[in-house]
Amino acid sequence: MLTIGVLALQGAVQEHLDCLNALPDVTGVIVKKAADFESIDGLILPGGESTAMGKLLRQFELTQVLTDKIQSGMPVWGTCAGMILLAKNIVGEKSCHLGLMDISVQRNAYGSQLNSFTTNLLIPSVSSAMIPLVFIRAPYVESAGPGVNVLATVDDKIVAVEQNNMLATAFHPELTGNLAFHSYFAEKVRINNSSFSS
């Protein structure tokens, strides 16, 4: 049984937990304090407000433990605001949050909430079927380093990337009822688990 945490400081926490708990052999749990990191195999950084989430990470003294866990190989998946938290560079801003993924992101790249949209896309590395993608005040990746694998683009904008143990999506799979990305991440966690235990 895999235990995958969802960082529960702010944002779409319950929706991710519901998706995780719908997968076989996966338990989704809330992560709020440093001790919670010791009992999880992987972590989701949910959508929400990246600036508020960054402040809360610092306020609850979680930035360092989270960084250490990711750097030591724990799989992490950032959705929307979570993508911004992982990025090494945020366009137009002097600082970043965790600064672990070699991507430069544009915040609120698609405009306000009124400019939110849904589309369907075939992402062969994730699923053989079309996947619905929901974008809400979404970022996109303006540029990605050589070690970053681009999984998906929409209108020539990069919206899903992977680098080693890190996955990031500009959209919200937890809002669609489609479990393809949660299954993909769970498999990433499972492979990581077996390599550590072998």
Structure description:
The protein has 5 helices and 12 strands. The protein has helices at residues 13-21, 50-59, 63-71, 81-86, 180-197; strands at 2-7, 26-31, 42-45, 76-79, 87-90, 101-106, 117-122, 130-135, 140-144, 149-154, 157-163, 166-169. It has a single domain (2-197), classed as Class I glutamine amidotransferase (GATase) domain (Rossmann fold). The mean pLDDT is 91. The chain is 26% helix and 32% strand. The protein has a 7-stranded mixed beta sheet with strand order 2-1-3-4-12-11-10. A hairpin with a 7-residue loop joins strand 7 (117-122) and strand 8 (130-135). With 198 residues, the chain is an alpha/beta fold. Pathway: Cofactor biosynthesis; pyridoxal 5'-phosphate biosynthesis. In the presence of PdxS, forms a dodecamer of heterodimers. Only shows activity in the heterodimer. Keywords: Glutamine amidotransferase, Hydrolase, Lyase, Pyridoxal phosphate. This is Pyridoxal 5'-phosphate synthase subunit PdxT. The active site is at residues 80, 172, 174.
Give a nutshell description of this structure.
With 198 residues, the protein is α/β, with parallel strands linked by helices. Helices cover 26% and strands 32% of the residues.
Q: Strand content of the residues, in percent? A: 25-35%
Shape: globular
Topology-level CATH name:
Rossmann fold
* CATH class descriptor name: Alpha Beta
Mean pLDDT: 91
Largest sheet: 7 strands, mixed
Roughly how many Å is the radius of gyration?
15 Å
How many domains is the backbone divided into? 1
Distance between the termini: 16 Å
Pathway: Cofactor biosynthesis; pyridoxal 5'-phosphate biosynthesis
EC number: 4.3.3.6, 3.5.1.2
Catalytic activity: aldehydo-D-ribose 5-phosphate + D-glyceraldehyde 3-phosphate + L-glutamine = pyridoxal 5'-phosphate + L-glutamate + phosphate + 3 H2O + H(+); L-glutamine + H2O = L-glutamate + NH4(+)
GO molecular function, one term: glutaminase activity
